[in-house]
């Protein structure tokens, strides 16, 4: 089956869905944005991301590391120190994520207005 601009093959659809499942969840995006600025320790990330539990942060970091987007470095010190940073592959994700962040900031008020208008209409 050939793929045109209006069709997505099953194989392409699975690949797109797989990537979007990872980078499309809110915790992954927030972590990538924070690590795009600099290396962070676990507790710095935890304090910086409102609403994320330690368990969810751990799971998300592990998945991002498994996907090759985040590098975890353990330093042999007392107490042990663990740093997280974006890999080269993870840095390539900054461009689309930053574009999404810019769009969200630019249109946040428009979306809030649309929600209020919609809710008033359906109430």
Can you tag this structure with a few keywords?
WH_DNA-bd_sf, 123 residues, 3-stranded antiparallel sheet, globular, 65% helix, 3 strands, single chain, Arc Repressor Mutant, subunit A, 6 helices, mainly alpha, 11% strand
Main beta sheet strand tally, sense and closure: 3 strands, antiparallel
Specify Rg, calculated over alpha carbons. 18 Å
What fraction of residues sit in β-strands? 5-15%
Q: On the 0-100 scale, what is the average pLDDT?
A: 88
Domain HTH hxlR-type: 14-112
Protein name: Transcriptional regulator
InterPro entries: HTH_HxlR (IPR002577), WH-like_DNA-bd_sf (IPR036388), WH_DNA-bd_sf (IPR036390)
Keywords: DNA-binding, Transcription, Transcription regulation
Walk me through the structure.
With 123 residues, the protein is mostly helical. The chain has a single domain, classed as Winged helix-like DNA-binding domain superfamily/Winged helix DNA-binding domain (Arc Repressor Mutant, subunit A, Orthogonal Bundle). It has 6 helices and 3 strands, in the order H-H-E-H-H-E-E-H-H. It has helices at 10-23, 26-37, 42-48, 54-66, 88-92, 94-122; strands spanning 40-41, 70-75, 81-86. The protein has a 3-stranded antiparallel sheet. Strand 2 and strand 3 (81-86) form a beta hairpin. The mean pLDDT is 88.
């Amino acid at each position: 089956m050939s793929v045109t601009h209006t069709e997505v093959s099953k194989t392409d659809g699975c690949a797109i869905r797989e990537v979007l499942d990872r980078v499309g969840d809110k915790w992954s995006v927030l972590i990538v944005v924070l690590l795009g600025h600099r290396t962070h320790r676990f507790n710095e990330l935890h304090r910086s991301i409102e609403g994320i539990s330690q368990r969810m942060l751990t799971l998300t970091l592990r998945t991002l590391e498994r996907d090759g987007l985040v590098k975890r470095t353990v330093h042999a010190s007392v107490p042990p120190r663990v740093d997280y940073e974006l890999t080269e592959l993870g840095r390539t994700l900054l461009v689309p994520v930053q574009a999404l962040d810019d769009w969200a900031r630019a249109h946040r008020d428009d979306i809030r207005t649309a929600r209020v208008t919609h809710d008033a209409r359906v109430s």
